């Protein structure tokens, strides 16, 4: 039996914006049309505009009667976020956006264009309550959950920017979304799940991205991992492990004091077995903290025993935050760690680092603002 989520992970709508069209499923849209006194087919028109044409301004929805656009705009399309600024790196192919939400909260998203794909890293909370000491967002604390629509708006804007050729390389398509921005996605479970379904459902019900191209990251909220395993989705689960031993992880990832490594691994195994999807193990390599070769060997043994071929280690060179005591490992130690993990037969790669000159680590831009 799946353990119910603690109440702290299903917080009320405190601070959330007014209802938005993107918050609603098909039944909710039909109900909203009834409340407005318009035919149900208008809901399908709106869905096609929002998800299919990437249009969020009812004033520009020319298939709606002119007299209806203002009403629908005020009732179902409140302004959720405004762009404070964009900063770019890598010749403009990495673009970070700082968003100001309706209550003044700040969140970030990062769009990264590669030759074969375009990946968007999105936020699911304003701030984060997980308190990981090496993370800028974690040190800022949690302000509030984002609504499903606030999450989906980050995706719509990036998809529109790619389509309209705003990113160097000409018009293109958003192909991948990773929930690795500000916040702990599984601590905002219901709204993140609604957003995931909006990302992967085919138009006009969603943006139509492949489930395999969506990654949901977690520090190890065990009950939520078990619940996600039973949702019938096949997105990639990424577990931010950062060390294989409880003693150090209690410090680096404080939620480990509630759900230790073995429980996190059991939940990850449940997800892998239920979905057939390999689990990505995220590991931020920190100089003289968790980068010892013997820890790489321990990590390899742990994953071999618990996940076998269903594990892949994604090694992340730490992106230091200003004034932090934490620093990235030197290249030779990084290479030694990778070799130690691979010696156990576990797949291990090093994440491509982008945007260090634009404060790419989550939370840095918001903290500067």
TrEMBL record:
First-level EC class: transferase
EC annotation from Swiss-Prot or TrEMBL: 2.1.1.192
Further comment: Reaction proceeds by a ping-pong mechanism involving intermediate methylation of a conserved cysteine residue.
Summary of the function given for this chain in its UniProt record: Specifically methylates position 2 of adenine 2503 in 23S rRNA and position 2 of adenine 37 in tRNAs.
Sequence ranges assigned to domain Radical SAM core in this UniProt record: 114-357
UniProt binding sites for S-adenosyl-L-methionine: 183-184, 217, 240-242, 319
Pfam families from the UniProt entry: Radical_SAM
Keywords associated with the record: 4Fe-4S, Cytoplasm, Disulfide bond, Iron, Iron-sulfur, Metal-binding, Methyltransferase, rRNA processing, S-adenosyl-L-methionine, Transferase, tRNA processing
Subcellular location, record wording: Cytoplasm
Protein's name in the database: Probable dual-specificity RNA methyltransferase RlmN
The keyword Iron is assigned to this record: yes
GO terms for MF: 4 iron, 4 sulfur cluster binding; metal ion binding; rRNA (adenine(2503)-C2-)-methyltransferase activity; rRNA binding; tRNA (adenine(37)-C2)-methyltransferase activity; tRNA binding
Active site: 108 (proton acceptor), 362 (s-methylcysteine intermediate)
Signal peptide start-end: none
UniProt cofactor note: Binds 1 [4Fe-4S] cluster. The cluster is coordinated with 3 cysteines and an exchangeable S-adenosyl-L-methionine.
Record-linked HAMAP family: RNA_methyltr_RlmN
Encoding gene (name): rlmN
Residues engaged in binding [4Fe-4S] cluster: 128, 132, 135
Family of this protein: Belongs to the radical SAM superfamily. RlmN family.
């Amino acid at each position: 039996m799946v353990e119910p989520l603690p109440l702290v992970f299903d917080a009320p709508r405190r601070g959330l914006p007014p209802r938005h069209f993107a918050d609603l499923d098909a039944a909710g849209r039909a109900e909203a049309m009834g409340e407005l006194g318009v035919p149900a087919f208008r809901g399908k028109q709106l869905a096609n505009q929002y998800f299919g044409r990437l249009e969020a301004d009812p004033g520009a929805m020319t298939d709606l009667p002119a007299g209806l656009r203002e009403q629908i705009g005020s009732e179902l399309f409140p302004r959720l976020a405004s762009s404070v600024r964009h900063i770019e790196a890598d010749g403009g192919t990495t673009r970070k956006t700082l968003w100001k939400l309706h209550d003044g909260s700040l969140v970030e998203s990062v769009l990264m264009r590669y030759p074969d794909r375009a990946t968007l890293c999105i936020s699911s909370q304003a701030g984060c309550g997980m308190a990981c000491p090496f993370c800028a967002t974690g040190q800022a604390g949690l302000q509030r959950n984002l609504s499903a629509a606030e999450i989906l708006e980050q995706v719509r804007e990036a998809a529109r920017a790619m389509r309209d050729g705003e990113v160097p390389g000409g018009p293109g398509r958003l192909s991948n979304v990773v929930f690795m921005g500000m916040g702990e996605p599984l601590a905002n479970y219901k709204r993140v799940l609604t957003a995931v379904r909006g990302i992967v459902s085919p138009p006009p019900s969603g943006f139509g991205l492949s489930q395999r191209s969506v990654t949901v990251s977690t520090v190890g909220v065990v009950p939520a991992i078990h619940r996600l395993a039973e949702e019938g989705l096949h997105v990639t689960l990424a577990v931010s492990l950062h060390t294989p031993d409880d003693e150090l992880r209690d410090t680096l990832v404080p939620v480990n004091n509630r759900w230790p490594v073995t429980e996190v691994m059991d939940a990850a195994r449940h997800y892998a077995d239920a979905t057939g999807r390999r689990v990505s193990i995220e590991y931020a390599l920190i100089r003289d903290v968790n980068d010892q070769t013997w820890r790489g060997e321990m990590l390899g043994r742990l994953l071999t025993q618990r996940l076998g071929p269903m594990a892949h280690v994604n090694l992340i060179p730490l992106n230091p935050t200003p004034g932090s005591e934490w620093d990235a490992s030197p290249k030779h130690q990084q290479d030694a760690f990778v070799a130690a993990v691979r010696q156990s037969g576990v797949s291990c790669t090093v994440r491509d680092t982008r945007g260090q000159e634009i404060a790419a680590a989550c939370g840095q831009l918001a903290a500067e603002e």
